[in-house]
Amino acid sequence: MTSSEAPRNRKERRAQAKEDRTPTEIPLARPKQETSKGKTLLEIAEERKLLQTSKIGSPSITTTQINPDGSITELPDPTDASSTPYLDIFLYASSLILLHFTLTLLVHHQYATDPPALVPVFLASTIFSSAPWLILLLVAALHPRASQPLMQLVFAGMAIVAGAWLVKASNDDPYMAVMKKAPALGTLWVWGVVELRWEIAAACLAVTGAWGWWKGYGVW
């Protein structure tokens, strides 16, 4: 192909462009390395404390809050014992108080000659009884730390003792004693089992059942 002839297609034009370009036309100078005047990403992350380890574990959406300026604020740990969960304590204590009232109603229904009236039983088991206040104090003191190993040991002992005592009382004691002891012991037994991990709770129930079988107590 001569220089006077014009390329007829794309392939010819590319070939002519390669023939016409000489090595001297390509700049061989090394590009200038200009230092950035701004801050690097690492410096910005250090200023905003993004690389620091959180005191309450790895940062997450439940333990940290991103502010509009990009900074991070640590939120209080919801499992920290220093922050008392008042609503959780109130609901937990209310459930146990209702359980105590239900057990009181059941023992009255079992041993009383006449059908029990709800209002007198309710007043006797709540308003004129110290049991609800004791339940509230115990829940406020023990429930927030129920997951700790020492408290698990305490609840395991309470579940075994309360369960064994309830089985013995319902089989050996007269009906008046059962009417007084059964609601409190049943409430403590259920509370202790519920606070435990499932494998420890199952072991405590097995110990109570084995003790009752060894003593010759029956379920009915």
- How many DSSP H or I helices? 8
Average pLDDT for all residues: 76
Estimated share of beta-strand residues: under 5%
**Percent helix range:** 55-70%
The best one-word shape is elongated
* Rg on CA atoms, Å: 38 Å
Secondary structure category: mainly alpha
Distance between the termini: 112 Å
Note the run of SSEs as H and E. Answer: HHEEHHHHHH
Low-confidence stretches: none
Main sheet, how many strands, which sense, barrel?
2 strands, antiparallel
Describe the 3D structure.
The chain is mainly alpha-helical. It has 8 helices and 2 strands, in the order H-H-E-E-H-H-H-H-H-H. The protein has helices spanning 10-20, 41-47, 86-111, 118-127, 131-142, 149-172, 175-195, 198-215; strands spanning 64-66, 72-74. A hairpin with a 5-residue loop joins strand 1 (64-66) and strand 2.
Question: What's this model, at a glance?
Answer:
This protein has helices spanning 10-20, 41-47, 86-111, 118-127, 131-142, 149-172, 175-195, 198-215; strands at residues 64-66, 72-74. The chain contains 8 helices and 2 strands. Helix 3 (86-111) crosses helix 4 and helix 7 packs antiparallel against helix 8.
